[in-house]
Amino acid sequence: MSTKKIRRFYGYGIPRVKPEELGGKLIVVEGADGSGRSTQIAELVNWLETSGRPTVQVGLKRSTLVSAELEKAQEGNVLSRTTLSLFYSTDFADQLENIILPALKAGFIVLADRYIYTLMARDMVRGMDDKWLKNLYGIALEPDAVFYLSVEPEELVQRNLSKNATLDYWESGMDLGLSRDVFDSFLKYQSSMQNAFRTLQKTYGFDIVDANRSVHSVNKELRKKISAVIDAE
Fold first, then answer.
1. CATH code for 19-152+208-231?
2. pTM for this one?
């Protein structure tokens, strides 16, 4: 029998917000580019809404406050690691306060296309302090469920090349100087990201889903687990 999860923030949270008043569900899907994350979220939105459950979507760099400036700063690669981290945390905080929390209070299901875990993993790989990151993201609400779609780096390379015919600068960790070859850098960076997620999983306890499988197989597993979360009312 499922039990209802106690709503809480990871740290100090957002002032004047009472977690117990947030009646919706926050579902997070994490994973690298090429993990099938966007496809799975699209399938889940369709499934939830056709079953009469209104949903709201959020994700990285979607804040109307800073997303455009963040995109521009990344293109120029002019920010320090700390400044870039704070830029992303601002993007997250704006969406949390103005989209996620109001939607949950209204009883919506919020589907997050990545959450604080990707941001923390990226910063960990770049040498940022773990305690500093936990404090920075203490504003975050603990989700009702988190699914990390795990795909082997070699498979991610093939999926990204078949989709875009190129590898992304940041998703390849080219800013870290791991290798002059973007292909080699991508493999090293994604391996480091997987290790960072495994470390975070020990603290935050999210589900690691084998996404090397077919879209249908992964979606079937996600639906089953999300149904259990929704039914725990």
1. 3.40.50.300
2. 0.91
